[in-house]
Amino acid sequence: MPVLLTGGRVVTMDPERRIQDADVLVRDGKIEAVGRTLKDTEGGRAVGTTVIDCEGLIVLPGLVQAHIHLCQTLFRGLADDLALEDWLAKRIWPLEAAHTEESVYWSAMLGAAELLLGGTTAILDMETVRHTGAAFEALESIGLRATSGKCLMDSGDNPPALREPTDRALAESADLCAKWHGAADGRLRYCFAPRFAPSCTGPLLRAVSDLAAKAGAVIHTHAAETPVELQIVRRETGQDELAYLDSVGISGPRAALAHCVWVDQEGIARLARQRTNVVHCPSSNLKLGSGIAPIPEMRAAGCRVGLGADGAPCNNRLDAFSEMRLAALIQKPRLGPDALPAAQVLELATLGGARALGLEGEIGSIEVGKRADLVVLDLEGPHNQPAEADLVSRVVYSARAADVRHVLVDGRVVVKDGQLKTAKVEEIRREANAQARRLRRAVGV
Ligand SMILES: [Zn+2]
């Protein structure tokens, strides 16, 4: 059914970065036209067209978060104020090990509901070792665009409850990829997701690189998050972590590396040369005390950079607006107030994320022919006034997730007037709380 958004102010993020007063016509999941008075055209008048009045509202490309762990949404508030190593070993790994199919499903539903209601339309997700199929089922029904993958942990350093034999980990990944890569008319895709270099053997990482290339899938992992991680990789491989990942085939446009906080000039040049995607997670990096990623330096070097909230227990929001604002602010004490201006930050949350998902031809901007992933914002609240201020500044610095009025994914209206249309929030709240209670008791936290 066609959808026509009329009378909004459209932030296109097209190559000229045009902002125009325009209608947006959506048909068969795609943007068919962007222009004035489309309601008078044949397409706009088609029988059954749903008209959404956007007068006085802002239309943005759907926001993309390129590093999320939906399986951790139920752990929100259960792992505060810990360094990464304790955060993983004492809380996250035991909680992930206690997951069942049901708890993974409701964890994904809870996270996806928060994401959609806050204007995030696409994610790159890392699940846990088991029950990844349940997360895909949740994503299929709730309507979020997602590239998701089973977490891979096969080295001897992992907790026994999560460690898997290399062959079994790879075989299950290949099965999940065969089932879900391209499902829901291409809205769902599979990624190969080694947790991070110290969790994985060299043969597994090499095999992942081959499998991903064969399937046309993204490789999603963490890199250079803390100095401890770099020391472990150097001790075990004799190499800098980014050089090591490159040596096993985890680099280039197909790879998305979350964090990259501890990267020197040589590493930045390497990432730029390879066109590897970096995913910046400013809230997570601050909350775990990891540091501040050199994002302006990466951009200056030509790196591809996206943005993500990471998991709920290290943030504790899954809110693209919080991440945008923080991404801009945390660079300024270090490099001056002109570092990473609002317009560059909006690129990270749209086009940068689209590139990290390998979907730059499909999403990330409002252009004819792209998938209709759209967010309609209401900036009438006092916290977004006066209205004459620069629009991109308002979106990045003052807007909040609660300002999201309508959301479309693949041309389907998934949020209308601030209400989720694809699932019952009350049911998600009830089931998610019941599962979180069970996990807490099982782990004793
Ligand atoms: Zn992460």
Helix-residue proportion:
25-40%
Radius of gyration: 21 Å
List the uncertain runs: none
Task: Provide the list of bound ligands, each named once.
Answer: zinc ion
Give the strand content. Answer: 15-25%
Helix/strand structural class: alpha/beta
- What characterizes the major β-sheet? 10 strands, parallel
Characterization of this structure:
There is one protein chain. The chain has helices at 84-97, 101-117, 132-142, 166-180, 202-215, 227-237, 241-247, 265-274, 282-287, 295-301, 320-335, 342-356, 391-398, 425-443; strands at 3-11, 19-27, 30-35, 50-53, 58-61, 63-69, 120-126, 145-149, 151-152, 188-194, 218-223, 255-259, 277-280, 304-307, 310-311, 374-377, 404-409, 412-416, 419-420. The mean pLDDT is 97. The strands form two sheets. Strands 6, 7, 8, 9, 10, 11, 12, 13, 14 and 15 form a ten-stranded parallel beta sheet that branches. Strands 1, 2, 3, 4, 5, 16, 17, 18 and 19 form a nine-stranded mixed beta sheet that branches. The chain has 14 helices and 19 strands. It starts with a strand and ends with a helix. It is an alpha/beta fold. A hairpin with a 7-residue loop joins strand 1 and strand 2. The protein binds zinc ion. Zinc ion (ZN) binds next to strand 6 and strand 15.
Essential attributes:
single chain, 445 residues, 10-stranded parallel sheet, 14 helices
